[in-house]
Amino acid sequence: MLKLVPTPIGNIGDISLRAIEALSQADTLLCEDTRVTKKLIHILQERYNTSFKENQEFISLHSHNEKSFVEKLEPSFFEQNVVYVSDAGMPGVSDPGQVLVRYCIDNGVEYDVFPGANALLTAFVASGFVETQSLFFGFLDHKGASRSSGLQEALHNGYTTIVYESPHRLEKLLLEIEKEEPQREIFLAKELTKRYQNYFHGTAKEILQKLDKNYKGEWVVVIKAGKSHSGSVITQNDILSLDLPKKTQAKLICKITGENTKECYKRLLQLS
Length: 272
What we know:
By secondary structure, the chain is of the alpha/beta class. The chain contains eleven helices and ten strands. It has helices at 17-25, 34-48, 66-71, 98-107, 119-127, 144-155, 167-180, 204-211, 236-240, 246-257, 261-271; strands spanning 2-4, 28-31, 57-60, 82-85, 111-113, 134-139, 160-165, 186-190, 198-202, 219-223.
């Protein structure tokens, strides 16, 4: 059997009794990083006096080898007690795990997913935005047209939208939002459940001033719902299929997405 077990995103006290039991009884632990999982187990042994099976096997399973690892699996592998844990949070949420679940479904392998801590829902609730319908975008692409189009979709889908961002790209994201939607209210959660946890509310410009170049840490960005233009019967692809100059296409697309015309035109040129 396979069990997907969430681990604390910061505060070790957030681990559940079920998670401790599953980890202690596992024959094989599939780990996003074996060093992180071994450290967690050591803490559980020391703090909660938990006994673990002897000779547990630790196998590295991360985003770079997940596909190749699963391709080599046999269903008999799961006749033992197998647990998958990511470094922090919920497996399958911007972390490996979904490919394993798909394998179990396709091959009749019994599996279970434990509920637990994750930064996505924690930040969503902490934002205080009352629009309870939300979308999760994970990490936006690092650069180029795909990042631009992803940001436009995040800003103009009509839902509260949650994204993750790394510390070295956080300023870039805030500047992009400031340029595109200077009045949009956003919420930033830093280092959730950890010692230096902090919340920031305001516009992108206001938050940039509060941070004062201090971008260290792990970040979740929650964007308050804006006006949706997705209900249009005409889509961007419809417009792109027309034999029109790129500038004209950009102007028409902006009518249905709310995107900045200049940025849209640059994006279309990159897509060509």
